[in-house]
Amino acid sequence: MTDAPGPLEPLGQPILDRLAFERLTTAHRRELKLHCYRMMGTLHEADDLVQDTFLKAWRRRAQFDGRGSLRGWLYTIATNSCLNAIKARSSAQRILEQPGRPPTEGRAAAGPAPELAWLEPYPDTELPDLVDGEPGPEARYETSEVVQLAFVAAIQSLPPRQRAALLLCDVLGWSALEAAQLLGGSTASINSALQRARATLGARYPQGRPLQRPRPTSEERLLLQRYMQAWQTADLDGFVELLREDATYHMPPWRDWYQGREAIHGFFSTVWGNFAGYHAVATRANGQPAVALYARRQQDPEWHAQSLHVIEPAGDRIASLTVYVGPLGLDLFAAFGLPHVWPAS
């Protein structure tokens, strides 16, 4: 594959004990998990598929002759495992928004849809250190672009083979020939799949690519502070003021979603007082600022996990807000290393 063998390669030895194998593969765990997450759209499946990849690699270790790179071999196993897993499930994609559903006005009425496959956020603590895994020279996207929640949602709309081709070539920087060797078929078929995938993303991104996000700036940190303060002081107007006029708000697993500051204000005015107070904890997801929100009822001394908020900033305002609520949101706290109960101060 394109990436050159690392200092621990080749692996093709007649006998390799499990500890040596684990040392060789552990270095690639995080980037493989991120790859599986992009393919599947869910943390839990990504974890399972990385474990499956390493198990298959161990069982097939005699097949690896050391002429290629260990990293490329593991990506081959992981990608095929993802494609097989997608075939086996009822939905090929995970969503942030139910296809064809218009934005809601006023009170949320559609209700939760736990039966739908919802896209999950990805904790920044699990993002790989890409010093040894930077995209190849043929990659079309920057690393910061392809971890964003909106980008992962966009590629979920691609058929699985197109999704795999795009991730291998445009994200990892593999050549079309290398992708064809992995996915099967000709180089021409891979190039055709790439053209269709790029056209689909081009319709989502008029400029041809997602907005590049710089490292967190003082402006972004101030926005996050103001956002947390608005919740902790029950300042609904202050919260709405942080939104762009054309901001969007999604709340998986609820079908309802909102577009525009006025519509978002209308919704939150119906639910803002549901709790006696809120406690906000800063975190990060998909390379974006995020907040874990805890809430308490009257007479309750402790804060209980309530929702996980992923913020897409645009300067000093919020362009998009995705808030994971209900059981889906609560299940994410552990993945982000957060407790379900925050003690009273």
From TrEMBL:
The segment(s) forming the RNA polymerase sigma-70 region domain are 26-90
Region spans: Disordered:
94-115
Documented EC number(s):
2.7.7.6
Q: Name one Pfam family in it.
A: SnoaL_2
Looking up InterPro entries in the UniProt record yields: NTF2-like_dom_sf, RNA_pol_sigma-70-like, RNA_pol_sigma-70_dom, RNA_pol_sigma-G_actinobac, RNA_pol_sigma70_r2, RNA_pol_sigma70_r4_t2, RNA_pol_sigma_r2, RNA_pol_sigma_r3/r4-like
Q: Where is the RNA polymerase sigma factor 70 region 4 type domain?
A: 150-201
Mention one GO molecular function.
DNA-directed RNA polymerase activity
Q: Which UniProt keywords apply?
A: Nucleotidyltransferase, Sigma factor, Transcription, Transcription regulation, Transferase
Tell me the subunit arrangement.
Answer: Interacts transiently with the RNA polymerase catalytic core formed by RpoA, RpoB, RpoC and RpoZ (2 alpha, 1 beta, 1 beta' and 1 omega subunit) to form the RNA polymerase holoenzyme that can initiate transcription.
Give the UniProt family note. Answer: Belongs to the sigma-70 factor family. ECF subfamily.
Q: Which PANTHER family match?
A: ECF RNA POLYMERASE SIGMA FACTOR SIGG, RNA POLYMERASE ECF-TYPE SIGMA FACTO
Q: What is this protein called?
A: RNA polymerase subunit sigma-70
